[in-house]
Design brief:
Layout lengths: L14 H4 L12 H8 L18 E2 L5 E5 L4 H6 L6 H12 L8 E4 L6 E2 L21 E2 L4 H18 L3 E5 L1 H8 L5 H4 L3 E3 L11 E5 L2 H6 L3 H19 L1
Parallel strand pairs: 2-3, 2-6, 6-8
Antiparallel strand pairs: 1-3, 4-5, 7-8
Amino acid sequence: MAGARPPERAPERAPEQAYDAGPFLPARGGLAAHRKAAAGCRGCPLYEGTTGTVFGAGDASARLMLVGEQPGDQEDRRGEPFVGPAGGLLRRALAEAGLDMDEAYVTNAVKHFKYVRPAGASAVSGSAAPAGGGKRRIHKQPNLRELSACRPWLTAELRLVDPELVVALGATAGKALWGSGFRVGERRGLLVPLPDLDGTPLHGQGLATIHPSAVLRAEDREALYQGLVEDLRTAARALT
């Protein structure tokens, strides 16, 4: 039709190349080197429209590693994992279970914040929307392709920290460790061996539980919270 506006073109990217963080990992070095390299990761489109990479943090020789899904809005703005409401609830639950979050290594399966904006705002992270102002950004679950692309960072953290126990918080973290068929309801609260990831043998055990954000969203928060605490008590006993 004459005078019709041509459709906007999406930014060009090579699909296969754009969904693999592997090429961005350093050839050598510890957590500090990996954290520095991760700041420049372009392994999937989620880096666009975010403040930056949110790498893991905590004791580099921790016996306990906590793995969540992805950074949230506050984590993205501050560049640290689990510093928002879910992080506060997790810290409280760990303390009740006899664990100290400051003695753990804390990270996420996906290192960039995936989000949507309410109607009238830019749609999804990856659309070059500014991370700062504008309407509130709402969490959107990463898909399996994004999860697989980011797994080399998680594998490197697991190898370098070499924890005795890994607690997977929620389904996404569980899938990052045990594959796409993982279901929290089937594995929750059970101590199981850690699998090899991408050819990297892992030591120690794993335990899956719900993500603390699920407690915040629930109508019966107290029941879910107590269930989370009980799962973390199982983790505490395993470390004892």
